[in-house]
Amino acid sequence: MTLIERSDHLRVNGSPIDIRGDSIGVAAKMGVLDAIVSRRIHMSERIEFVDASDRVVAELSADEVNDSADDVEIPREDLVTVLRAALPTTTPLIFGESISELHDDGTGVDVHFASGASDRYDMVVGADGMHSATRRLAFGPENRFLRHLGFYTAIAQLPSRARTGGRNSMFNLPGRLVGITGYGDKALAVFIFRSPWIDYDYRDLDAQRELLVDAFAGHREWRIDELLEVARNDPELYFDSVSQIDMTTWHRGRVVLVGDAAYCASPLAGRGTSLALTGAWFLAEALRDHADDIERAFVQYERLQRPHALRAQATAAPGGDVLAPATLEAIDARNQRLGTASC
């Protein structure tokens, strides 16, 4: 087994992630649950929606977004560390590399890399995210499978956890949200805005910054200026569309997709990591069960994982209307429905 990573380092930017539902049992079977739980974080029990004066106008409790008390929230960098430590020491992990061509002849896959190197493998597993190059090479252009949900999101690292005051505060404009969330000694600026599909290069960080600033142009309420400045200066700003990947099959020949590359549910679902864990486990089990028949293995993997993917994708729809209502009237209605703890 060889792992290929396009970045020159393990990518750890982004908000904390959830391990929930069946993926908790899967993590236990993988032998990594204890290490995950030992790094568990406890963010604020609720999200506070505030007005321009920083007065709390509504609250969203953790009970309304979590599946159960067994859910585990962990910093992304900690989960990456745990999973890397669980790899056999002999597993090659190659940074700064990506696949440029795939040639599947039915008995193996010849892989050509961007560096000019090449090699042959029994199979290729694409776990390279919503913008999967593996999917593009094996199945076709991204636009065949991507379903845009009408939002964009961004996350930037704040310089000091203390600036949150221990709160998860979110401020709304019609169709937009800007906020601060924190864990441990870290804090993040978060942004969501409604928009039809925007055609831009998702690897162009300057273009991403410009799109984000334009989405909040003309507004200086609350802490918008401060947080946009943080986003402008974050070298690892996360910015992407809120979209799902919808495919009728996740395998072709000896190439198979796992995680967001196959069934991205979007950040609004909060189940991407859980889906990746269950998908990886079902795939490993299927390859064990059908070691001499890769097609049967892939069919078994899809049969077991697809219900999980469909359920996760279905949970994304209501999230956007709660976090970024489209109109001022919808914001007021959301606030009245949620109320505050002091009401």
Number of contiguous helices: 11
Number of domains: 2
Strand percent estimate? 25-35%
The low-confidence parts are none
Q: What percentage of residues falls in helices of 4 or more residues?
A: 25-40%
If you compute it from the alpha carbons, what radius of gyration comes out, rounded to the nearest whole angstrom?
Answer: 21 Å
Order of helices and strands: EEHHEEEHEEEEEHEEEEHHEEEHHHHH
How many strands appear in the DSSP assignment? 17
Structural class: alpha+beta
The main β sheet shows up as: 7 strands, mixed
Q: Describe the strand arrangement of the main beta sheet, using strand numbers.
A: 4-3-12-13-14-11-15
The CATH superfamily of the largest domain appears as FAD/NAD(P)-binding domain
Q: What coarse outline follows from CA principal-axis ratios?
A: globular
Structure description:
With 343 residues, the protein is of the alpha+beta class. It folds into 2 domains: 3-43 and 66-145 and 244-315, FAD/NAD(P)-binding domain (3-Layer(bba) Sandwich); 147-242 and 318-338, D-Amino Acid Oxidase, Chain A, domain 2 (2-Layer Sandwich). Helices cover 34% and strands 26% of the residues. The protein is built from 11 helices and 17 strands. The protein has helices at residues 22-30, 33-38, 76-86, 133-139, 205-215, 224-233, 260-263, 272-289, 294-314, 317-323, 328-338; strands at residues 3-5, 17-19, 46-50, 56-61, 72-74, 93-95, 99-104, 109-113, 118-121, 124-126, 146-158, 169-173, 176-183, 186-194, 238-245, 251-252, 255-257. It has a 7-stranded mixed beta sheet, sandwiched between helices. The longest helix is centred in the last third of the chain and has 21 residues, at 294-314. The protein is globular and about 65 Å long. 37% of the residues are buried. The model has no long low-confidence stretch (mean pLDDT 89).
